[in-house]
Amino acid sequence: MRKKYFRTSASDPQPLRCRVERVVRFEEVDALGIVWHGRYPSYFEDGRVLLGEQYGLGYMDFYQQGIVAPIKQMHVDYQRPLRFGETFSIEAILHWSDAVRLNHEFILRNAAGEVTTTGYTVQLLMDQSDKVLMLPPPFYEEFRQRWQAGELA
User: Domain with 108 in it: what CATH number?
Assistant: First the structure.
């Protein structure tokens, strides 16, 4: 059983999820034909971008509100390799946080459904002067209220 990356409480709304299918491209593998370890952050990005677009939390949504969301922390756990030409899925999961941050978890699975890689990222919300926000900006607070009310699941 995998260790949970983020703490949850019974009062938290359900995580938001999306899934994207990919095929390992030749440029993503090393001389052994397996995905080079440095490619996994871009796979996480594929999931994070799709999830953001699906729920109205994309990079441009933040940018239009004068907010940036840089990655503060990233972690990757490798369980089994992905190989050239292999189909795989990226599941991106946004976990609730009472703090002004975005907690994303990622689960990559091969075509057989086996977990190959897991990981997470934490993004802070900052204004365009690079000041970390301690309170959610209005558009994000509205999003959080809709999420808590179960309108997004």
Answer: 3.10.129.10
